[in-house]
Amino acid sequence: MKVSSKIIAGFLIVMLLAVIVLANQLSVIHQMQAINRDLSEIDMDAASTVLRMQELAGVIKEDARKYIATGDAIYDKQIADLGDEFQARLAGLRKNGPSNRERAETTRLSEALKNFIKVFDASKHKKRHHDPDYLPVDLAIAVDHLQAQTEVLYQAVKGSMKDQVARAADAGQRAERLSWMAGLFSLFLGALVAAVIARSINEPLRRLTRGTRAIAKGEFWHRLPAHGRDEFSELARHFNVMTEKLGELDQMKKDFVSHVSHDLKAPLASMRQIMHLLLQQIPGPLNSQQVELLQLSYDSAERLAAMVGNLLDVS
Predict the structure, then answer these.
(1) CA-to-CA distance for 286 and 291, rounded, in angstroms?
(2) What angle do CA 271, 272, 273 make, to 5 degrees?
(3) Is it the case that residue 107 has pLDDT exceeding 60?
(4) Of 4, 35, 64, 99, which has the highest C-beta tally within 10 A?
(5) Architecture of 3-194 per CATH?
């Protein structure tokens, strides 16, 4: 895999992780917004509905007292209208999909309203009592139960609101935890990807540096590992070809020096031997000028022989 491909793949992994984290955060935010919408649109309506029913229960109680005291049909009609509004608001609560507790309390409140209407209808045929604060015992119990059940439903709605607020808080905490986890995981994965990419680049560079130092020292047998398909592997293959060529050239140089040295050594030895014999005047006597010239030639031959010997030692 090429180095550029590794870098691109690493960035793509980090970007993909960032997209996943962003999608998760958007999902959590959407859930929190949905809970907030439920709180603002449903529970507040439910709370206001139950408060209105508490008011209706109080008005029903007052109208019931007035009807028992006066027997005026207008109060009977008002109680009927209030009961219809009460029933309509109960139906609205059921329609808005309350919680299980709200649903149960709504059912009990509906039964309490039906019980009140039944007791009130039965009280219409009883003897009138002119005390405006008087209510028959059974009617007083029924209306008190209606008011108490309305209060219980109101507490249930408040409890549901608290539960939804708690759910929103839990969702926020969960989102915070997920954000920390995703951030740390992204940091770890990014560091891991960066470390892998850096290692895939630095290690071949170190091997190449060691190789060039070895070549600078004349170690032309040094080779770099060239397995793989990335740019560094291709560079290592070219490096190995270069070192092989340099090794061949170095060997050719050594062979050339060695051959030239050997070829020069034999003639020089003959020349030195002849000059040595002449200087000893074995072939015949020489004058001083001839001896001096032969001595200069002999010294030059000695120096040349020393240089050839040094060339042989180097080769």
Answers:
(1) 6
(2) 90
(3) yes
(4) 64
(5) Up-down Bundle (1.20)
